[in-house]
């Protein structure tokens, strides 16, 4: 599960030759990161 993996481990898996994680997982991670940043800005 990607939620429990450290970011450096996820990036290493994405850069590897294995077919998973694919584009959907990467875009979900980017979307979650964007949502977290929006949440942070709204609390300022």
List the helices and strands and how they pair.
Elements: H1 7-15, H2 23-42
Listing every helix as H and every strand as E from the N terminus to the C terminus, the arrangement reads HH
Query: Which secondary-structure class do the elements indicate?
Result: mainly alpha
Rg (CA only):
12 Å
* Approximate helicity band: 55-70%
The tally of helices reads 2
The overall pLDDT, averaged over residues, is 89
As residue ranges, the low-confidence spans are none
Distance between the termini: 31 Å
Account of the protein in words:
0% of the residues are buried. It is elongated and about 40 Å long. The model has no long low-confidence stretch (mean pLDDT 89). The longest helix is centred in the C-terminal third of the chain and has 20 residues, at 23-42. By secondary structure, it is an all-alpha fold. 66% of the residues lie in helices and 0% in strands.
């Amino acid at each position: 599960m990607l939620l429990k993996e450290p970011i450096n481990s996820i990036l290493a898996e994405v850069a590897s030759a294995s077919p998973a994680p694919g584009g959907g997982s990467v875009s979900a991670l980017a979307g979650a990161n964007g949502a977290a940043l929006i949440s942070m800005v709204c609390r300022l």
